[in-house]
Design brief:
Layout lengths: L6 H14 L3 H16 L5 H13 L4 H44 L3 H29 L5 H6 L1 H17 L4 H15 L5 H10 L9 H17 L4 H15 L5 H13 L7 H31 L2 H7 L3 H29 L3 H16 L5 H17 L4
Amino acid sequence: MSNEYTLGELVTYFLKLGTTGFGGPVALVGYMHRDLVENKKWISEDEYKEGLALSQLAPGPLAAQLGIYLGFVHYGVLGATLAGLAFVIPSFIMVVLIGMAYKMYGGIPWMQALFYGVSASVIGIMTVSSYKLTSKSISKFESAEIKKNYLLWILFLIGAIVTVITESEEILVFLGTGLLYMFFKAPPKTKRSANSLVILLSTGFWDYEIGTLGKMGLFFTKAGAFVFGSGLAIVPFLHGGVVKENHWLTEQQFLDAVAVAMITPGPVVITVSFIGYLIGGFPGACVAAVAIFLPCYLLTVIPAPYFKKISKNQSIKAFVDGITAAVVGALVGAVIVIALRSIIDVPTAAIAILSAAALFYFKKLQEPYIIAIAAVIGLLLKFVFRV
């Protein structure tokens, strides 16, 4: 049974998460589970799983969609809207401010030094979040529990392996695992159940050109509407359109934009605001942010009432459980893929291991403190020790 909470408390929580939630989608969905399901008990385990499944089935940024759905659970469209805005606005403001500094000073080598330490620390944070999410969503890491839930663990491994191999999150894999577990656990008994399943399926501040804003709006809307998965999945799509096709940014500017996404809290795709700012100033940042998040908002809120209603059906519940297992596996796979790119030498490996150990053994330690320490270490290693 979920504890009662006010809409104001929910908005305050997402403002805080959007301000201090480092680590990208893997860590953010883990924080939501820890805070809203385990600690505050505002959201039930089933409601969280429904949100995670719907968020993965619909295109767009995973963490933002989950936040929107959790806002919808008890406060409908208003809750979804305010939760989504509260989650995105803090990091949007930070990214625009960094964009202003970037344009003013022409490149930011200190950002690369920060990224060196922070990205390694993020791997440690994501690893601990993945461990906790896996133990809660699949089963505890005990032989008896693993044996009892062996099929969910198989689906989990499928999600992880496919993500590592393809370096993307495949919607057909999630649908397939959901169907497999549903037919194994609770096959649909009526035609209505089957039909329900089908439905599931100054610095340049004002420096812009109207034509470019229109092209940006169309491109980022496509990115938000047709790219499935987390920030991991959307980055290659953004690179193709922003650098290769439209030549809005150079390769270095795009890499710096990804770095900005990693050193700021909130959803990874907020990097589009930085990209938008470099292309078209503050109006460009606003157009990019609205365009990327509007599709995911609509594709979460519109099916949410129906999804919530049919999810009580045992067959659909099994379908959601199967998808959840593969989704959590895919998140673990994403950690591995990102780690292979971020852990580039002994210092970064040490930072990642120490960050994970600190979170694991010091339960009250908050992630922003670890991120801050890692950032300082990155600066020292690059500018003092010249690593």
